Amino acid sequence: MAKKVVKESYFGRAIEQEITKRVRNEFETAKRNQSDDFEDFERIIDQLECKRTEKEYEWRSDVFIPEYPSIHLTEASQWANQYFPTRDFVDVYLDGESDLSKKKANAAKQFINAMLNIKDTYHYQKYMKARSINSTFGCVYAVCSWKQEIQKKYKQVPVKEQIGTNIDGQPIFGTV
């Protein structure tokens, strides 16, 4: 069996271990600080799923009236009606008043709306899920990325020649 070769780090092993220890300590502290929030979130999810996870009391009825799920679904329908009445999801604001600024803003709006209207991106489902998590947990984190491929393509431009003149004497051009 071959020996594992450990490459010496730039700053040294001791410094790396100290940084790793500090990052782990910060992570553990953050985890402890957010434990109450996570427990509240789990209780709210149990309410949405109509699960009785609180303590059993004899005086409590086993009949569960889904008040919270109905409130949450009503809010969700309002979010959908507010954001999805048309296929136009975004609007743009101009920084300048020049024609170029207007054209750029319009192009950006058309592009973003075209991207969000592609069914395979599941924009509606992602938006509604994020709003639901935000409503129950108080915040939501979204990771967005964009990958771009640039391909060089050479296209031959058709040659245009004058093929005649119109009645006003203006030249008429056509492709050869």
Describe this structure in words.
The structure is a single chain. With 176 residues, the chain is mainly α. The protein has two domains: 9-55; 66-144, no CATH class. Helix content is 48%, strand content 6%. It has a two-stranded antiparallel sheet. Helix 3 packs across helix 5. The chain is flat.
Residue share in helix: 40-55%
Assess the beta-strand content as a share of residues. 5-15%
Average pLDDT across residues? 84
Order of helices and strands: HHHHHEE
Count of strand segments: 2
Q: What count of structural domains?
A: 2
Computed over alpha carbons, the radius of gyration is 30 Å
Unreliable parts: none
Give the end-to-end Cα distance, rounded to a whole number of Å.
Answer: 71 Å
User: From the helix content, strand content and strand pairing, which structural class follows?
Assistant: mainly alpha
Question: What does the main sheet amount to?
Answer: 2 strands, antiparallel
Q: Major sheet: order of its strands?
A: 1-2
